[in-house]
Amino acid sequence: MNTSTIVFEVSWAGEQDTRTSALQTERQLNRFFVEVERRALRIAEISVRDRDEALDLVQDAMIKLAQKYADRPENEWTPLFYRILQNGVRDWHRRQAVRNRVMVWFGRSSKDEDEYDVIAQAEDTAGRTPDEELQNSEAMQGLELAVGQLPARQREAFMLRTFEGLDVEATAVAMGCSQGSVKTHYSRAIHTLRERLGEHRQ
Amino acid sequence: MKTPGTETEFVDTAKEMFDDSVEQLDAATLSKLNQARQRALSHARHPAPRYAWSRMAPAAGIAAAAAIAIFVMQQPGLDNAVVAPSTASDFELLLDEHELDMFEELEFFALMGELEERNDVG
Predict the structure, then answer these.
(1) For a Cys-Cys bond, which of A127, A135, B4, B57 suits B9, CB 3.0-4.6 Å?
(2) What pTM, to 2 d.p., does this model score?
(3) Is A135 in the same domain as A160?
């Protein structure tokens, strides 16, 4: 066996390793996205109150995670993914604010066209009696509305902790703030929501 | 929503309702999510190459934003009562690829404004 054959074999084996590793990462990413995508969509939807916009935001977050952080340890993906998603949501709100200012400047309000269509966004009712469905969807709409009206940081803390089930540490990474801030935002969010939904029930 | 007494009960009920809403996502939405996932995975397989010109994009964006800002500010008859989008960052945001459609709308609204003014004068 001459030197060039050995070099070729080592290089071929290296390439195989790289391919195997890339395939493995892709499979792990796929599993992660399947696990997280539905909840992420609903969280984004509650934040921006538009399902199509939420789908775009989730897709952008997936792409950024796949492009930039696929090589990070798998247990870091969840907070990283939500950090990207929350940044996307914040940018979306900033763009909306500017857009609304421009529309006002041109003498038109974009509020009418941006009105959230509850009927269009209504969920599939399969498997429930009409009464159950009515109760459930009314309660969820009330909760969504109340969560949507929270200040942005409280909303993020509440949804990441309650809906996604992240612990304080992971939520702090996802929100880009201290664990103390997470606890404060979360506690205020719970207090406000209980108060508002309590009033709603009365 | 049942009446949750304690904070833990409230959180559990909220989580339960949220999980229900996730379970009820319709087939069309699930299909779109699947497509989004496949797109993301294809980006992982073929990461986009960085072209030299892409390094100049921020500078080009700021230059374009400044040009638009100057153009807008020079327009006569600005209504002082309404705050104009005057900062460069506002225009940078508007130059985002997602907002290209909006510029088409702006032209339309500008035209509508002109027509209304003409009608008022006439």
Answers:
(1) B4
(2) 0.66
(3) yes
B109 contacts A107? CB cut-off 8 A: yes
Instruction: Give the domain CATH number at A192.
Output: 1.10.10.10
Q: B101: how many CB neighbours lie within 10 A of its CB? A: 9
Query: What is the rounded distance in angstroms from the CA atom of residue A60 to the CA atom of residue A41?
Result: 12
Q: By CB neighbour count within 10 A (0-12 exposed, 13-18 middle, 19+ buried), where does A63 fall?
A: buried
Tell me the mean pLDDT in the region B31-44.
92
**Interface predicted TM-score (ipTM):** 0.76
Residues A102 and A182 in one domain: no
Q: Enter the tokens of residue A75.
A: 């247990």
Q: Which residue spans within A119-195 are E strands per DSSP?
A: none
**Is-contact B51 A59, C-beta < 8 A?**
no
Do B15 and A33 count as a contact with CB atoms less than 8 A apart? Answer: no
Q: Tell me if chain B has a CB within 8 Å of the CB of A62.
A: yes
Show the low-confidence residues of chain A (pLDDT under 50). Answer: 202
Buried b / exposed e across B9-26, counting CB within 10 Å, b at 16+? ebbebbeebbeebbebbe
A148 to chain B, any CB pair closer than 8 A? The answer is no
Q: Name residue, tokens 């996604």.
A: A164
Amino acid (1-letter code) at residue A29: L
Question: What is the DSSP track for A50-110?
Answer: -HHHHHHHHHHHHHHHHHHSTTS-GGGHHHHHHHHHHHHHHHHHHHHHHHHHHHHHTT--S
Query: Domain of A151?
Result: 129-202
